[in-house]
Specification:
The complex is a heterotrimer of chains A (442), B (232) and C (251). Chain A has 442 residues and is of the alpha+beta class. In chain A, 31% of the residues lie in helices and 26% in strands. In chain A, β14 and β15 form a beta hairpin. In chain A, α2 crosses α6 (141-153) and α3 (50-74) crosses α13 (295-303). Chain B has 2 domains: 8-146, no CATH class; 147-232. Helices cover 72% and strands 0% of the residues of chain B. Chain B has helices at 9-41, 44-54, 63-72, 80-91, 95-118, 128-144, 148-168, 173-187, 196-205, 216-228. The mean pLDDT of chain C is 94. The chains are: A alpha+beta (442), B mainly alpha (232), C alpha+beta (251). Chains in contact: A-B, A-C. The A-B interface holds A 20-23, 174, 177-178, 181, 185-187, 194, 199, 203-204, 206-207, 209-215, 217-218, 228-232, 234-236, 239 and B 1-4, 6-12, 92-93, 95-96, 99-100, 103-104, 107-108, 111, 192, 232.
Chain lengths: 442, 232, 251
């Protein structure tokens, strides 16, 4: 395969100009002040071979299918707990578990309609899942619009390389939303507003999907059905809400009472099957750091298959064997606090002094359930251009899996990289940038 | 996707103000060029009326300061920069209605304004693309807006701003009456947007016999009614 | 068996017309092994739509709202309840949730030693509370935590209930918060149910007793947040004033 991308690299500045023209930004809060920044684009794409992709695609479908079955099970029969595969405290003490969702049957029995699965490729060529994002994963709009622009600016590049189309993500979303809407009414995207860090994405999807972008206050519930309100008292029924407002703010009568972002009584309409919520409420229980460990077991339990995708090697001190291993090897592991709120965050054992390590050990001994530990993966660096010179940086891949009546994997993804050569953190709010992700068709 | 033409209160407000601010960008630049032309070799009294109306707070001392300020000042609300920023603030909320293609003309204008300010460009001519893109914006909007009601609200905003500016800058009756007719033309499509009571008042005030902008009370009354005419 | 007439009346007055008001209410008694609702009536402002449903803990709720400008919201929930011995059957509730401390029911220090038997322990906790916590109206808020009550040693029925629940959960005894009516009180009362391995039993730490009869239950949950009689949200700039009347009388 002869991959020719020189022209594309040469046109980087033109591409960034076009990104500005389309207002491709993300918002950042610094010291309480909202600022919009352009999301730096690096024109060297991440290229995934056809065979690698086939493997990833099958694995991602399998993983998301199992996660959806797990969510259904948690809020219904709880077989996986009763059968002793997952200890109940991992489920019920998770911040993402919502008793308010018990017994709710979401349209089509789908919970994670849009799943963002974060992966890295190890130096050994092996892909590892780092995290599942099943609540409101963001980022797909960036590679979509980058492709739109790079095809304009450097058409030859795409004549010479067989790259799978990625602008069809809007079609994937639209199809799924129509399936979940089920003819009840219009479909909307609910945004918290322009000061949300992903506002560009919300408005761009609305345009590309042909959905209405709804702001807080535009939607209301009457007779247990959701409506979109017009300025002159007109209203139209809403059948599907792709909500970019988090669970705890979605219904101020059930969750956070002070929320001005939500729709009062929307949970009742949802519970009665009068509206579909994308994603379902309560998904946080399945993308919890502690639950992550059990995902491969879910694949075996619900699907009776061997998991195709691997987790990063993970240990739960909750189990005796792992407890001993973690305490003995703490200096070379990554330790993550599952309890989040006011927690320890993520620390690398190798960065801690002897005293700090002992302190951490004591915490693990005191509350083993609160911690998970992982092997540090030596992941493959990607080339980026720094002042026109290629340098190597850490990068991850967020793959998007869309589930309506069927589960479909988007043949692209968001590749984020870190600007800082020593950093493993590829978060866009920390100065990183993004790349297009090419999936080769042959 | 199931289509509908309902416009929320929030969007109606954004559409209206987008129309107004984008028109203000255009008119302000037009007046600034007129003013600039007179400054080249004219007397102060030739351009003072425009100066006074664009710089109501009287913050600029020299011709250069005035031109530069009206182009780029983002604190003074009467400048090209301020109007373009406000237009953008509203447009950004309307991407899926007006479409990225149309929105991009405003993005480019704002980016150019910022770039010219950074480069300290003093000649008004550097902002010619802002005029061109403003017209491209309107052309694109008219061609592409699928929801006609949304277009009407924007056009109402645009024409209200035009009328407002004509009054502020003391244009003659013919121009004002024509602009008022344009506003009313769009009202026919959107009857519920108008405050009927205020429209009646304006119909009585905007007649050849009563028209007199030198009468400060009359002028202020007109301006007040024009700005309360639309209910969004 | 005793029979009671209950009447719960609320009038919400807004300082100016509000364009939208949405509500969720837990104002109707439930029928269970300890109480039977024989008759019930509901009166609601005519411009409100209202539907019945259940919440996360299977309490009865009413939800609805009004979308035309209006200045008041009024409702009356009234009826007749027959009460029997206060023993409520276990219906497969998720006990884990009632063993896990919440922000309002989290006490870390060991306060007293109790017998191993669940019921004896509950009596001991109840008694300890009665002897060590002073009943004092208006000294706490709806947000006051069990830890704060323990420190200040005073509170109202809600605070007694939260602290008792916290002390039970410390011992791994499933305990839940209950909101309802008690004869002779002008407002709703709060008490506790503990799970003895078979049934839910009622304890009223404010009055230091195991409940036998005369308590009419509206709702239960992890703490007071799960049981509020009324939650609402309106748009606009108005302020609201709420007047509540509660009566429970044996007939």
């Amino acid at each position: 395969m002869n991959i020719r991308i020189n022209e594309l690299i040469d046109s980087r500045d033109t591409v960034n100009k076009w990104l500005e023209r389309y207002g491709v930004r993300f918002g950042v809060y610094k010291h309480g002040v909202f600022n919009e920044q352009l999301f730096p684009f690096d024109s060297i794409p991440r290229i995934i071979s056809h065979s690698d992709w086939s493997y990833l695609e099958t694995g991602l479908k399998q993983r998301v299918l199992a996660l959806n079955k797990f969510l259904w099970d948690v809020y219904h029969d709880k077989r996986i707990i009763k059968d002793g595969i997952i200890p109940e405290e991992f489920v019920y003490s998770s911040k993402g578990y919502m008793p308010e969702c018990e017994g709710i049957n979401p349209t089509g029995e789908v919970y994670a309609h849009i799943a963002g699965i974060d992966l890295v490729e190890g130096k050994d060529g092996q892909w590892y899942v780092l995290e599942d994002n099943l609540r409101i994963p963001s980022g797909a709009s960036y590679p979509m619009i980058a492709r739109e622009i790079t095809r304009k600016v450097s058409p030859q590049t795409f004549t010479q390389n067989a790259v799978a189309e990625n602008r069809n993500y809007s079609k994937l979303l639209a199809t799924m939303m129509e399936e979940m809407n089920n003819g009840r009414g219009i479909s909307v995207i609910l945004t918290p507003g322009r000061y949300n860090s992903a506002y560009f994405e919300h408005s761009y999807f609305a345009e590309k999907i042909g959905a209405t972008l709804a702001y807080p206050g535009d939607l209301f519930v009457e007779d247990n059905k959701v409506y979109y309100a017009g300025i002159y008292k007109e209203k139209t029924r809403v059948g599907c809400i792709y909500r970019r407002v988090s669970d705890e703010y979605i219904d101020p009568l059930i969750f956070e009472a002070s929320s001005l972002l939500g729709i009062p009584n929307v949970m009742q309409a949802y519970k009665s099957g009068n509206v579909a919520l994308i994603n379902a409420i309560g998904n946080g229980v399945a993308d919890d750091k502690g639950i992550y460990y059990f995902v491969p077991k879910m694949v075996e339990y619900y699907l009776g298959e061997q998991p195709i995708l691997q987790n990063a090697p993970t240990y739960l001190p909750y189990f005796k064997k792992d407890y001993d291993y973690v305490l003995a090897n703490i200096q070379r592991l990554v330790i993550k606090d599952v309890s989040e709120a006011g927690g320890y965050g993520v620390v690398f054992g190798k960065d801690l002094s002897k005293e700090k390590l002992d302190e951490l050990k004591a915490l693990i001994i005191d509350q083993p359930r609160r911690w998970i530990a992982q092997e540090v993966i030596d992941f493959k660096d990607l080339e980026i251009l720094e002042d026109d010179k290629p340098v190597e940086r850490k990068a991850d891949l967020r793959a998007f899996v869309v589930s309506g009546k069927e589960t479909r994997v988007w043949a692209s993804g968001l590749t984020r990289f870190s600007r800082n050569p020593d950093s493993f953190v590829v978060n866009s709010s920390q100065g990183g940038g993004f790349k297009d992700t090419w999936v080769l068709e042959e | 996707m199931v289509k509908h033409t309902i416009i929320s209160a929030k969007k109606a407000n954004s559409l209206y103000w987008l129309g107004r601010y984008e028109e203000r960008v255009y008119i302000t630049l037009h007046l600034l060029r007129k003013c600039h032309d007179k400054m080249i070799d004219g007397e102060l009294e030739d351009y003072w009326p425009i100066w006074q109306n664009l710089d109501t707070a009287g913050v600029y001392q020299t011709n250069e300061e005035f031109i530069f300020g009206i182009m780029y000042d983002d604190i003074n609300p009467s400048t090209v920069m301020s109007a373009q920023m406000r237009a953008m603030d509203n447009a950004i909320l309307l991407r899926e209605d007006i479409l990225s293609e149309t929105l991009s003309y405003l993005e480019m204008s704002l980016a150019l304004l910022k770039e010219c300010r950074n480069k300290q460009e003093k000649n008004v001519i550097c902002l010619q693309p802002v005029i061109d893109w403003s017209l491209a914006f309107w052309g694109s909007a008219e061609q592409r807006l699928k929801n006609h009601k949304a277009l009407y609200i924007m056009m109402i905003g645009r024409n209200i701003e035009n009328l407002d500016m004509l009054l502020r800058f003391d244009y003659d009756f013919e121009r004002v009456a024509l602009a008022y007719d344009s506003v009313k033309h769009y009202f026919r499509h959107m009857p519920s947007i108008v405050d009927d009571h205020i429209e009646e008042e304006l119909n009585r005030l905007i007649t050849r016999e009563r028209f007199n902008l030198k009468d400060v009370e009359y002028k202020n009354k007109l301006l007040k009614f024009i700005n309360q005419l639309v209910r969004v | 068996m005793k029979r009671y007439l209950y009447n719960y009346q609320t009038i919400v007055e807004f300082s100016e017309a509000v364009p939208m008001h949405a509500v969720m209410l837990r104002c109707q008694p439930v029928s269970n092994a300890g109480q039977t609702v024989e008759q019930e009536h509901l009166v609601v402002s005519p411009d409100y739509w209202l539907q019945a449903g259940h919440d996360a803990f299977y309490n009865r709720i009413l939800f609805g709202g009004a979308t035309e400008p209006h200045k008041t919201f009024a409702y009356v929930s009234t009826g007749i309840v027959a009460t029997d011995t206060y023993v409520i059957k276990y219906r497969g509730e998720n006990l884990f949730l009632f063993k896990q401390p919440t922000a309002l029911t989290n006490v870390r220090e060991a306060v007293l030693t109790t017998p191993d038997n669940v019921i004896d322990a509950a009596y001991a906790i109840c008694n300890w509370l009665y002897e060590n916590i002073v009943y004092q109206p208006l000294c706490t808020t709806v947000e006051t935590t069990a830890a704060e009550v323990l420190e200040r040693r005073k509170g109202v029925c809600q605070d007694f209930a939260h602290l008792m629940i916290a002390l039970c959960r410390q011992r791994d005894i499933p305990a839940r918060y209950v909101n309802g009516f008690l004869e002779g009180e002008g407002e709703t009362h709060a008490w506790v149910e503990i799970f003895d391995g078979y049934n839910w039993l009622g304890f009223d730490p404010t009055h230091n007793r195991c409940i036998s009869e005369g308590y009419v239950k509206l709702a239960h949950g992890r703490d007071v947040r799960d049981c509020s009689v009324s939650r609402g949200l309106f748009t606009g700039q108005a302020t609201q004033q709420t007047t509540i009347h509660v009566t429970l009388q044996e007939i």
